[in-house]
Amino acid sequence: MKYGNELKVGIAVVLSIIVFIVGVRYFQDLPIFSGTLELYTTFENADGLIVGNPVQINGVRVGRVNEVRLRPETRNVLVRFQVDRDLQIPEGSTTRVSGLSALSSVSVVINLADARRSAVSAGDTLTSDQTDVLGNLVDQAPRLVHRADSLFGSATTTLNTAEQLLARPESDLRQTLVAIGTTARTVDQLLRTEQQRLASTLESVDTLATSLADFSTTNQDSLSLAVQRLNRSLTQLERNLTALEQTTTTLDAILQKVNQGEGTLGLLVNDPGLYHRLDSTTTQLNRLLVDFQQNPKRYLKDLKLVEVF
Amino acid sequence: MASLSLTLTKPLRNVGLYVLLMVKAFASLGEFRLYRKNLFKQMVRVGIDSIPIVALAAAFSGAVTTVQTAYQLVSPFIPKRIIGSIVAPSLILELGAVVTGFILAGRIGARFAAELGTMRVTEQIDALEAMGLNSIGYLIVPRVLAGVVMFPVLYVVACFVGITGGIGVAHFGGYLEAGEFVAGAREFFQPFDPVFGLIKSVVFGFAITSISCYKGYYTGGGAEGVGRATTDAAVLSCVYILVADLLLAIVLL
Amino acid sequence: MIQIEHLYKSFDGKPVLRDVSLEIRDGETLAIIGRSGSGKSVLMKHVIGLLTPTSGRVQVDGTDINEIPYRRLREVRRQFGVLFQGGALFDSMNAFENIAFPLRTFTDMEEAAIRDEVYECLRLVELPDVGPKRTAELSGGMQKRVALARAIALRPRYIIYDEPTSGLDPETSNAIDDLIRALTDEMNVTSIVVTHDMHSVLSIADRAALLHRGHLHWVGTIDELHASDDEVLCAFVKANEYQIGVPQRV
Fold this sequence. Notes:
The complex is a heterotrimer.
Chain A: H1 4-27, E1 36-43, E2 54-57, E3 60-71, E4 76-84, E5 94-98, E6 107-111, E7 125-128, H2 133-167, H3 172-218, H4 220-260, H5 264-270, H6 272-294, H7 296-299, H8 304-308
Parallel strand pairs in A: 1-7, 2-6, 5-7
Antiparallel strand pairs in A: 1-4, 2-3, 3-4, 5-6
Chain B: H1 2-27, H2 32-46, H3 51-72, H4 82-121, H5 124-130, H6 135-172, H7 178-187, H8 192-217, H9 222-252
Helix pairs in contact in B: 1-6, 2-6, 3-4, 3-6, 4-6, 4-7, 4-8, 4-9, 6-8, 8-9
Chain C: E1 2-11, E2 14-24, E3 29-33, H1 40-47, E4 55-60, E5 63-64, H2 70-77, E6 80-83, H3 95-106, H4 111-124, H5 140-152, E7 158-162, H6 170-187, E8 190-195, H7 198-204, E9 207-212, E10 215-221, H8 222-227, H9 231-245
Parallel strand pairs in C: 3-8, 3-9, 6-7, 7-8
Antiparallel strand pairs in C: 1-2, 1-4, 4-5, 9-10
Helix pairs in contact in C: 3-4, 3-5, 4-5
């Protein structure tokens, strides 16, 4: 073997070159034996894409980025990448950059177009479709965070103010709440007393009715008319009472919540409308009750009829 | 005073002598006919004959790195494939070249220095020169060239065997599946890493062979001088591997 | 013709040769004699440019060998055959390969012709059968003879012998001396013999040059040497006679 050494060295060198190339392709997740197809695409923003980043279709690695070059004249980034030759990429397929460079997981993602369209060939350029969900999310995230932040901030301030307001005995809110409490109590008392009076009134009405029954036989026409009127006024009274009762219940609930110090306070403070409505409601209620007390006849005017007798 | 200036200038003179020797070697590169036969002989000795020991060391490096990485990664939040992401680049970037470098520093560096040193003290180098032969071209060029060409081959062997050893111990030792290991290795694989390793191995190959040839070629002082040159060559080669390793990492990474 | 003119050489400031001028004529055998450390080997190495003089010139056939590029120097060196002190056989090769080495390196001879030439050289040094032997297997005298065969393989015009008989027993020394004389006659070469062995000098040299402490102390023919009453020369010759007279007891 005259060339024994040369042969050994040759075999070793060739084998190691093969192992090197195959090994690199193996770890790059590239097909070891089939060829590749080189394509181009352009992005406005490469988002940290670098040479060697993977090219993916449906999350499967199919190639790698070969070149990322900024083109100042067009103000975009030309990306040259290779994909497996066997891959039939239909024309009209689009690309986008996906991932975060901070996590070193940036990749070019190809969205395949309709498979019936003819396949692209080497050197073609795919259009980019840069509506990156994650990217958008990332873009919006600061804004969202900012908003959430300011919301929380204002909530905190509101709560703080509420707290301060509640802490001060002379504060409007506290006074309002005290006023509401007083009003509600007054309403309650009033209703209780009125109920008794109403009951006695009804009792007397009842007696009256009995005597009327006797009377009716003689003055049937005028009597029935009177009874009809009386009925109507009673219904009206009942309706008034129900509304009053509802108002008290609501007020009770509100007060309970207020007593428990729930977050609605913020709203209460923040919403002057509710404030005003509540205020006016109580005012009106007050006025109504005052009115009722002063002129019960206006509400029981039908009863005047009784006085006829 | 004279001895002081000598201690100060001696290192510089040695550097100059080394550089001059390498310049003469490069100037002799054209005389391929002169060293062709020797080149392949040295390539076999540097490369082919070193494959078993390099493979052995690399297999153990890969296996040990895998086991120790697995030992350190106990958190259930870290996926096991990260072991592959750590072991494979370690071998490709660092261990493949450096372990091979140390083995060759001991094996080849010492041998070259001893051979050339003996040739120097027994006047064989003078005999070559007296014949009208370019002794640097005949003795040093094929040795350095063999290192530069064959070291990358050994590096590839080391990486291949090392990663295989890592996968093997991961799989059969029950640390993680081979597939997981490969997936992890692929996840953080940079194509430049093996290229960097190759560059390293070329530099190491040159450093080891040129330093040990320099030490051997300029041996003086008989048999004792040969012994000193041999030790110096092995130690200096190791030191310069580490220095070159750091410099390359700073410059290229 | 080799002319050495006003050669100075110092190592790290220590002078080894001081103003040596010597002419070696074509066809003669010149012996450079002197005690160990007198600078004989250093002078010899200047002749083939293995050492560069601190000052002075060495001319081979009119060419200053320190002025020419390395490539030309190597061509000049090819006219020389050098027998080194220890033989300096390449221990990575066997005897045959050692002798064939210069032929393979410097000629375009066919392998068969090279083999014939190697065996011719081995016949000249009277060792026809040692071809396949490794250098370590050869005795000191055999190594020197193989080295001599290698030195003459390219049919040089000049042969330099560096201590050809040192370390050998008197009988082998005589055999080497006879060989040198025979080769000189047969090949018509110019020889330079560096030696401290007066026996050798007397049997092979035409002229002798005595180096003493870096100076060229005395130059003359063998007849003049016999007739000389120079103190240093006489002391040197006497010491040698005594050495030669008692080898059996050493």
